[in-house]
Amino acid sequence: MTKYLILAILPILAGYGLFEAWPLIAGPALSVASPLNNTPFPGGIVTVRGKVARAAQLTLDGAPVLHEEDGTFLVTLTFPHGGSVLTFAASDRFGRRATATRTIFVP
Asked: Cystine design at 100: which of 15, 29, 54, 88 (Cβ 3.0–4.6 Å)?
């Protein structure tokens, strides 16, 4: 009887362990809501917003970006005339990275 009880409890414990370890296994996630790719900005002022999950550090073109405790970030930047490429990188404490790129244009 105890053998069957142990065989019933082991998969539950393994499943719970996998559920709790998922953030460590998955690595960072990065979602950029604004700006959309290939968007023109006539004034040159760009509001960048998005959300990051399971990340220790977030950078935009190599410069650190502060994010809230829930992972949201909001940055307002000014760009000169012409095209610019924004490169976002989120990394976790194990060195795994998630990246996103957006291209903008200031006429």
From this structure: 88
pTM: 0.76
Instruction: Report the C-alpha gap between 54 and 77 in whole angstroms.
Output: 25
Say how far apart CA 97 and CA 35 lie, in whole Å: 21
Tokens of 89: 């990188």
Return the CATH fold of 27-106. Answer: Immunoglobulin-like (2.60.40)
Half-sphere exposure (CA, 13 Å, Cβ side) for 15? 5
Distance between CA 77 and CA 57 in Å, rounded?
A: 19
- Bridge partners (DSSP) of residue 101 are 87
Contact 29, 58 (CB under 8 A): no
Beta bridge partners of 11: none
Residue corresponding to tokens 């979602």: 31
Domain boundary assignment for the chain: 27-106
